[in-house]
């Protein structure tokens, strides 16, 4: 089970330049083979299916902790896409002015037909995310190797998407993912080291460019976000600390575990897009709820 | 963001009759079009993408609360599959005795090749779950109608899978899902009622057979599990209560919201399957971790 | 069995502005999850597979009648696409002038490679239509709820595609579909009402914007096209009238059933595109057929 | 547009031996790459998209006529599947006796979960039919060659499915398809001959085994069903006769065109399967409709 | 088994105008349904699976010979794509200048995210090549008919892609494929002729436009490349000559078989794209290998 | 370009117990995500797309050499499947005895409908192989890590399929793949070592069970097949030897490169299956070819 928070791990700036095609490209980091849906679901299924965990619980705890974090990653990528798509078509409810006319030339028409200018579980080419992206052999060493490879592949994708987008909303988000995904790269490397004695962290960075080359990532590293692994749990998964410890391969600083999650920031309220009837087509009266809320003693504002 | 718990919403009995083909059929409730991956991801994306939520927050809060619960549902279906698959092939590390020989005749060969006798994000026919199953128009009424239909379709699938499996592990799990999924059916019906004034709950039950016909479901209803909606959050989503209230259409009892989650039960430790090298092939020495744990002051047992 | 007519339900104007990308967007209404292939095939399979129809034949007849109409809808969407694609590349048979050069930048390259500037059973993102889009639980209430939801979802897509395209060919076609698909929305709502007593039509319109906001739709409504359900059969499916009756929720006018089909309009003859060798590359001599026709007493002109 | 008839082209006997796995195999002839969905949709799209048809109308008319017939073929395959699946699980509405228990071992679990023991648009391996199966280059010669190949491939599949199933329902249906599909093979061969002068019919039969080797097919040939091409239209597509004429390659008898369709046989009423809530779960009262029917002067019996 | 050569069948000129969207379109000829992956894999599987080959070995040998050639075709299409993509984004390792910014508007974002500006096994719409494209009934006549159709369909695609691209790299490659694929068309036509006596070659050219209309193709024909079939084997497949002989239908020149392969041209060395870390991110020192090479007596230069 | 040989790398014994379901399971090693189609196509595309190869040619040569070998692997898996499927249904051309009746209960009905009891490019669940399985970032270190992981995953699949099948045909083939795939595991480990200095080979074996536990594999190791890397080229790829050298991690013996390929064994002639019209339905007269062969001076026997 999980508890959900109405908060994002970082504060996303509003876009300077909302861009439909940047948003379409960023979909890769959400629903691509190496996107956050993949990391989330790989570790989630590995956590459910982990056999003989009692004997090797620190590995189980590590995978669970990272699985917990990945949920916040699909969230933050979705919000970045949503912010970039906010206001990219003409606002209003009159269909005759063709408010969505420009969208026929955009890269992702489903952002306008299947969603209301919002994220979808697909990649930058419009391929839907699929369960085929989940690897879970049950063999611990092989699953860890997979996860290490998956995170390196994901890092390559993040680097390339960073090179495609200049807007601060996009770059802040990708910079954050580079740091936190980078931590996961190191975490699985350390796990393999603990299991086998081989100095896997020395393969890093992969690809070779350091996170320091990305100013937004660098800023997060100055906040030590490359060093602290959260358990993303109130009470469980503390044995992650038996793996996540020792020096970080980038700068030699000590790695450490933090129980729970970062405090985070309130999820942004996304603007309505009335030309898409989102959220509702016309004259819903929130007063109905206000009256009920008063009666039930529940806080409600609009 | 989420916090993850190492607990399941219910206690799953050990199977009387582990069965590879029952497990294969149950995959439908996990990775099928109407399985728990679909309910989880539909509401999760609807929560991320919800535009203009400030004006209609009770609906947003309801969707978020249910999204939170669905994670526990993919978890409990996975564990039921895993328990039913535990021990269905010959144990041991000698490959020459063909410990997996029977598996060539089983319905799902990937349970033995791609996973270590464990769940996969696919349905009973081996189709992978796909992001194509997510519907999110952004129009509130249409999304609620979709969710209502999705839950009714999911209920039909649960009823049919119940009719396929007799083992108590399977039936306890499905009975639980019938009650909680049944609550979600009612919740979306009530949401549509609040939004439109139409008595949508009177369409229920759909399909027409009552949950009372399922003994395991009935038992959970006696514990009032059809009445209480959890926020699945420490602090957020409380305005769900502006929708989830009033009489339950089945028995007229009052519906109410509970902050947070049920207490739950510890996740079962799944047996090793050494013929599949799961979790590890041979002589890993847990003492290594024991020593580290001692040094770091972390609890570790094996 | 069916009888096929060489006629379209409406007269499609020639495009003012042939547009490859408008045509690509309109593909959504043909091969998308909520396109006409989906409505056609859902009701077609529901009609073949309907168990116990004797007891509830009016529902069976309604589904059959609507299934019959949907064929004309895939037809009219296809022709709209074909007209919009006519002449968008350079005409001629000399390949060295690169007559298709512009197509590398268009949204749907398969319009030029896989077809001869013509429709394909795929959506606006190039996803092929799939049988996975067919829902047919066999439970009447659930299937009707599905169909109601499907038509509402289809209506949302039509509204959005309308907002993307300004050309009269496209808008006439979408306006027509809004009215006839709108009739199907109401028909399934009435069916649910008949089956359950719940006032499902009061949920309409969904999305909230009325068809009156679309001038081309309005024109068709003035011709009462939102009121008359055709059986699309010479002799069968007359019991549809036990469901399709009473006031229309939009304007309170009486709904009524018409046996057979609308008279329709001749299917347009589409221009050749010689650069695509369509229909034939060079010097076919139709006189061959003229001679045969004369001999066989069959009418043949060219 | 089409007109739909509540009739099948042949009378299907009730199965001697209902069989879930025969039904699963027959799915290939419905939703397989070479199944009737493919022939239907290939010719349907080719008819909509046919450019320059005025010049070569006999080919257009032929494709339209055959497209019309294929609808009856998806129908007759569906009904054969449905009859073979009727009664294969335990009847009744009590879920606790596990009426669907055997289905976990059957080849197609979706027949029980996704449909109510009825056909689905998928093949014998559970792959959904897809629009990717439609070929429509727009070049007449190439499209005719494709159609000729498609029908030959379809014939091979029919022959092999015939060899898998012994029940008279199945064999009658396949025997019929062998004859009618065989006619389509010849029709496209004759079309290529007319267009090019090459004696394509001499390539037949392909595969080499004659339809005479199949007793059920032979019986239909004795009724001349291999000789008469229907226009499957009330008024159109008569120029098919400019192609479909001359001797049949099998027996030298004269080929001829019949306007309209065969008279056919009433579609069978399929038994209810109450364990699947099909069509409805419990106590629907048809008297409601009887009263309405009386009032409206419509014939209604139950 | 195969032996691989580091040589291409032709010399590809450097592009005048590298073009991301031309490269995206050319993907159709690589990973499309009628692309070279399909011809390669169809004949490869037909060669492995050929039953009773002893009796009809010339057909087996012909299929094997052509299968061998097709490998060189996927190679030459890949290289053409790679050359067209070389240098289309800004070179350098600083990500902050957004070197890939333009790519968000290109047709194929995976060229920049999933590969390093290089080919992928997908078509021009981003659909991955799939094994579903392989046809292998095992019936010789039907498989030959398929292959004949496949090559004609492939030829149509090549003609259309030629009409899309003007760059000499692209046109040289397509011209070459037109000639060699054209030879394969004729080869399967001759095979059908040998098997059945029907003059299948008289159906050609299909589509009707001659290869002489393509100047680059014409040039290769002047080198007799439409006349000589290679066995693409050192010792085997010589009985191809029992089929590949007699006059060529285009110009009446004699067809003949050449043992082995053309000599070919060295595979071009593709430029690095450092912004994509391809091949490596920074300061790899090739001297390491130079020293080893010296020690081992192996030639190594850089 | 390639040269093809009519030889397999090993001699496959005839099956003791032909088995349709063993054959269906073995499909995983051919068309599965970790099957030989994947290894073949990954390295093939990496070889075509390798940028900056001049600087790091030993890595390029290694990938090319292994790509060359993988072709023989898809071949040997196909033949093993084909041999196991030979004779599993009743032989004869009379369809009325239902020679394929048993096949409706087998795991892979496409072996009988889509092929003539022969291999298909799909996995054990019937999923087609897809280009989505190809990874090629262009970054050398990441691609090598991928290849290392891919080969380890492939090895796990081979081990599990071995545990499913007891027949000597199957086990000989899998034993061979374990040794040669095992060599590829080590080769990519050594490549990573050369590039980074990290002792990646020390992670082996992965999964932990040694190849010595598989008697058939052990036999091939006694022939030193785990030590010798072939260039699979007449003249090229010799710099592989700069990577493939030094001690083998299993037994410390010296690794070495052999130019060209193993000599291999003639490809087996597969029996006809006349009930599937394979290769031809009836009375083809090979004398036709004999006469031609005589005239042309080509060796031809039957």
Explain what you see.
Six copies of one chain form a homohexamer. The first copy, chain A, is mainly alpha-helical. In chain A, 43% of the residues lie in helices and 4% in strands. Chain A contains eight helices and five strands; from the N terminus they run E-E-H-H-H-H-H-H-H-E-E-E-H. Chain A has helices at residues 20-31, 36-49, 57-85, 110-113, 140-164, 168-196, 215-222, 287-296; strands spanning 2-4, 7-8, 228-230, 256-258, 265-266. In chain A, the strands form two sheets. Chain A has a two-stranded antiparallel sheet with strand order 2-5. Chain A has a two-stranded parallel sheet with strand order 3-4. The model of chain A has no long low-confidence stretch (mean pLDDT 96). At the E-F interface, strand 1, strand 2, helix 2, helix 3 and helix 5 of E face strand 1, strand 2, helix 2, helix 3 and helix 5 of F.
Kindly list the characteristics that best describe this protein.
homohexamer; 302 residues; mainly alpha; two-stranded antiparallel sheet; two-stranded parallel sheet; 8 helices; 5 strands; 4% strand
Largest interface by Cβ-Cβ < 8 Å? E-F, 100 and 99 residues
User: What's the assembly state of these chains?
Assistant: homohexamer
Largest beta sheet: strand ordering of chain A = 2-5
- Report the β-strand fraction of chain A as a percent range: under 5%
Structural class of chain A: mainly alpha
Q: Please count the beta strands of chain A (DSSP E, at least 2 residues each).
A: 5
- Overall pLDDT score of chain A: 96
Order of helices and strands of chain A: EEHHHHHHHEEEH
SS element count, helices of chain A: 8
**Low-confidence sequence ranges of chain A:** none
Shape of chain A: globular
């Amino acid at each position: 089970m999980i508890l959900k928070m109405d908060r994002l791990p970082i504060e996303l700036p509003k876009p300077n330049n909302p861009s439909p095609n940047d948003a379409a490209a960023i979909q890769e980091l959400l629903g691509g083979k190496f996107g956050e849906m993949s990391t989330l679901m790989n570790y989630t299924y590995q956590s459910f299916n982990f056999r003989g965990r009692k004997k090797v619980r620190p590995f189980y705890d590590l995978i669970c902790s990272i699985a917990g974090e990945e949920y916040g990653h699909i969230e933050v990528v979705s919000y970045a896409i949503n912010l970039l798509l906010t206001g990219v078509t003409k606002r209003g409810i009159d269909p005759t002015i063709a408010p969505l006319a420009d969208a026929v030339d955009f890269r992702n028409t489903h952002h306008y037909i299947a969603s209301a200018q919002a994220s979808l579980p697909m990649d930058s080419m419009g391929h839907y995310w699929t369960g085929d992206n989940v690897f879970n052999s049950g063999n611990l060493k092989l699953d860890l190797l997979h996860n290490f490879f998956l995170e390196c592949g994901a890092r390559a994708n993040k680097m390339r998407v960073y090179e495609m987008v200049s807007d601060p909303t996009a770059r802040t988000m990708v910079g954050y993912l580079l740091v936190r995904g980078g931590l996961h790269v190191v975490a699985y490397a350390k796990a393999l080291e603990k299991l086998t004695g081989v100095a896997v962290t020395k393969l890093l960075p992969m690809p070779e460019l350091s996170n320091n080359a990305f100013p937004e990532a660098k800023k997060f590293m100055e906040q030590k976000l490359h060093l602290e692994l959260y358990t993303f749990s109130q009470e469980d998964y503390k044995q992650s600390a038996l793996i996540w410890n020792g020096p970080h391969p980038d700068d030699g600083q000590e790695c450490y575990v933090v129980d729970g999650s970062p405090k985070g920031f309130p999820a942004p309220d996304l603007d309505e897009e009335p030309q898409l009837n989102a959220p509702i087509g016309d004259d819903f009266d929130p007063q109905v709820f206000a009256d009920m809320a008063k009666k039930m003693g529940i806080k409600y504002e609009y």
